[in-house]
Design a protein that fits this description.
heterodimer, A: mainly alpha, ABC transporter involved in vitamin B12 uptake, BtuC, 75% helix, globular, B: 426 residues, alpha/beta, Rossmann fold, six-stranded mixed β-sheet, 23% strand, elongated
């Protein structure tokens, strides 16, 4: 039974926890800074704390780690949100933000930049811009292949997504195979990383994530109705075709944005919605807001470990998300069998 | 105001959003030209063979598919230009079954019925809660409101689905074969529930089971091949002719003793047909002649029957199939006049058929008449369904047994309708 109060409490609690972990995470890395000091640096502007820290520490916290942690939170929130929405739309627990081939498209875009130096307008942003364009372009292609008149049959959409995804993966493999040099960079990018991302990335990602959250929050009732199929939803008064289009476009945009700033971080969009459902039940009025913070929390934690596990080398994020997420998910699956 | 369906046509191969007045003329159209009306606060059953478009017409009426031609109107308002949310406040649909990969609690599922009454942010109100609980009470599912939807049995799920549709507070309720996966008790419970709901809701229900339609529907719309074959009161539409035409079966009519509602026993139609229309008179009773009467009739014979008492199952079948019958009032002795008529028909007939029944002094005339045609050159057939096992003989001096013995010796004895038919068509 859905209770608004319970949702607010869970979401609020998770929000505070996320903030706390973010603060801790900012302090963690090659040069460790105590959480108290991090907190003081972060809030100096508000509380006017007299600096007892070095200028270097301030730069690390405000200029390097903070944007990276915030970006991680935004990416995690976006991917989890997209995953939850697509699992409901496709009524398929296997669905994730990359199911329609956005990741393959984006990876191909990025590889082209890495290998052929193909670039657009701003050189340093070539990779994110190309990844974004290719990601969205993939969805456009998938969508139009599946479209019949004004309608988009879900099964055709899934299949065309799988096919086009395979096609782009093959293209990407070809590009990588012929690349020779730069292979490491491509590999690292496709496994996802937040390394070296500054405030510019945060400012680009922020509006996408916020808009995505805003749209999804208004669609929670519709998402619930969609869980019993398009027909059921239609009979409950939902304009199914419109809802499908909105969901596809919104998830495609936020997923493409996330991929373009952080590479392909797998598993988050698949697993976070499931973990959330196992804990809160399947009502999207709880699942959607909780997913936002659970996704953010998960990526921030994963990124923190990525920095320290084999320091000074950084581990690609995608490895860690799968490595930590999968066992936890399996544990939940076993302990709450059949209640996915 | 009733629900009106006018000249609706639909094809799955047609561009789904384009109107086309000639859509029904296309070869692959599922619905060619369908018109019917569901009266207010009645249960209207949609009956027809598999693949004749029953589910499709429901989906078109409910607005999931758009009709390519024709119109549908609720309350005198056509569905053209009505959006999904408006429609959802008018009608609710109970699908054949629902499935979700995620474990939704029953209460929350029923609460989904309130969706059309909510905006994006409004919370469920106490009123919603009450409506949901009431609809769960009336469908008797309140006891498992905390269980998960995918843990329910077929019957439970069906009732939960009906509860959700009631929570939608519809004026029109549409159900797609609500009893198809249920055991017999659950079937009756669901149909009874629909009768209760129909006191203030117009119900349209696709029904597979003809006897349920006969027992629980006020009206029946019979469909076949994308057309409406007949619509009207259930007792008029569910007739020997219609069932024979639409389903290709022989229907032996009986009736529920208390309500007088029609019920049917079904058998397959004979494959052989008589080349020339022979006249056969059938002497039977106790409902034992039903299949023989209908089989011969369908095979193209001129069939007459009698003497039959008017409460006899055979008499009902003769009446429904339009077979000329010599009959006497229930529980009355056979009149002189009836016996004369029977003799006359037997004289005219090319063959006489006697079906073995229990015999007492009251109906001894029947076997006697058949007996009198033995060795007259007129073929006499004797049908004893349990060959050589005599019926209960309650006549003085075991007269019936004597007759049956003679019949076995001198008449052509057959075991049932099919054998009789092949003898007659030889």
């Amino acid at each position: 039974m859905y209770q608004r109060k319970r949702t607010v409490i869970i979401t609020g609690g998770l929000f505070l926890l996320t903030l706390f972990v973010m603060t801790v995470s900012v302090g963690v890395g090659e040069s460790g800074i105590a959480p108290q000091k991090v907190f003081d640096i972060l809030t100096a502007g508000i509380f006017g704390t007299t600096p007892y820290w070095s200028a270097g520490e301030e730069t690390i916290v405000l200029g390097i780690r903070l944007p990276r942690v915030i970006l991680g939170a935004l990416v995690g929130a976006s991917l989890a949100l997209a995953g939850a929405a697509l699992q409901s739309l496709f009524r398929n627990p296997m669905a994730d933000p990359f199911i329609l081939g956005i990741s393959s498209g984006a990876a191909l875009g990025a590889s082209l930049v890495f290998v052929y130096g193909l670039s657009v307008a701003f050189t340093i942003y070539s990779i994110p811009v190309m990844a974004f364009i290719f990601g969205l372009g993939t969805l456009f292609l998938v969508y139009n292949v599946a479209r019949v008149g004004n309608l988009i049959p879900i099964n055709t959409l899934l299949l065309s997504g799988v096919a086009i995804s395979a096609l782009f993966s093959a293209c990407n493999s070809f590009v990588m195979f012929t690349a020779g040099h730069n292979l490491n960079a491509i590999m690292f990018w496709t496994m996802g990383s937040l390394s070296g991302r500054g405030w510019d990335y945060v400012w680009v990602m922020l509006p996408f994530t916020l808009a995505g959250i805003a749209v999804m929050i208004t669609l929670t009732r519709q998402l619930n109705a969609m869980m019993f199929g398009e027909e059921s939803a239609q009979y409950l008064g939902i304009n199914v075709e419109r809802l499908k289009k909105i969901l596809l476009i919104v998830t495609a945009i936020i997923t493409s944005a996330a991929v373009s700033v952080s590479g392909i971080i797998g598993f988050v969009g698949l697993i976070i919605p499931h973990i959330v459902r196992l804990v809160t039940g399947p009502d999207h009025r709880v699942v959607v807001p909780v997913c936002v913070f659970a996704g953010a929390l998960f990526i921030v934690l994963a990124d923190m470990f990525a920095r320290v596990v084999i320091a000074p080398t950084e581990l690609p994020l995608g490895i860690l998300t799968a490595l930590c997420g999968a066992p936890f998910f399996l544990y939940l699956l076993r302990s709450k069998r059949g209640e996915l | 105001m009733p629900l009106e369906v006018k000249n609706v046509a639909f094809s799955y191969n047609h561009n789904p959003s384009k109107r086309d007045a000639d859509a029904g003329l296309k070869e692959n159209a599922v619905l060619k030209d369908m018109s019917f009306t569901c009266r207010d606060n009645r249960v209207t059953g949609i009956v027809g063979p598999n693949g004749c478009g029953k589910t499709t017409i429901l989906k078109v009426i409910a607005g999931f598919y758009r009709a390519h031609a024709g119109s549908i109107s609720y309350d005198g308002r056509t569905t053209d230009g009505m959006n999904a949310a408006e429609l959802a406040k008018l009608r609710a649909v109970v699908e054949q079954t629902v499935y979700s990969p995620f474990a939704f609690p029953v209460y929350d599922y029923v609460m989904l019925g309130r969706t059309p009454y909510h905006g994006n942010f409004s919370a469920d109100t106490e009123e919603d809660n009450e409506i949901v609980l009431n609809s769960m009470k009336s469908t008797n599912v309140l006891q498992f409101k905390d269980r998960k939807i995918n843990e329910l049995s077929g019957g439970e799920l069906q009732r939960v689905m009906i509860a959700r549709s009631l929570a939608q507070e519809p004026k029109y309720l549409m159900l797609d074969e609500p009893t198809s996966h249920l055991d017999i008790r659950q079937q009756l419970e669901v149909m009874k529930l629909l009768r209760t709901i129909s006191s203030n809701t117009t119900i349209m229900c696709i029904i597979h089971e003809i006897n349920q339609a006969a027992a629980y529907c006020d009206d029946v719309v019979m469909t076949a091949g994308g057309y409406v074959i007949g619509e009207g009161k259930a007792e008029d539409i569910l007739s020997y002719e219609n069932l024979s035409e639409v389903f290709g079966v022989l229907s032996m009519q009986t009736s529920q003793p208390e309500s007088g509602k029609k019920q049917f026993l079904f058998s397959l139609q004979p494959e052989t047909r008589a080349e020339k229309a022979k006249h056969v008179h059938v002497i039977s009773g106790e409902g034992r002649g039903r299949r023989i009467l209908l089989t011969l009739k369908h095979a193209g014979f001129k069939v007459t029957a009698g003497i039959l008492s008017r409460n006899d199952g055979d008499y009902l079948v003769c009446r429904s199939a339009g077979i000329e019958t010599v009959s006497v009032p229930s529980f009355s002795p056979y009149s002189e006049e009836a016996v004369m008529q029977q003799k006359k028909l037997c004289d005219e007939a090319d063959a006489v058929v006697l079906v073995a029944t229990d015999v007492g002094s009251g109906n001894l005339v029947n076997p006697e008449t058949a007996y009198s045609y033995l060795n007259t050159g007129k073929p006499v057939f004797f049908v004893d369904h349990n060959l050589k096992e005599y019926k209960y003989d309650n006549t003085a001096g075991k007269r019936a047994t004597q007759i049956y013995d003679a019949m076995l010796k001198n008449a052509k004895a057959v075991s049932g309708a099919d054998e009789l038919l092949s003898e007659l068509t030889d």
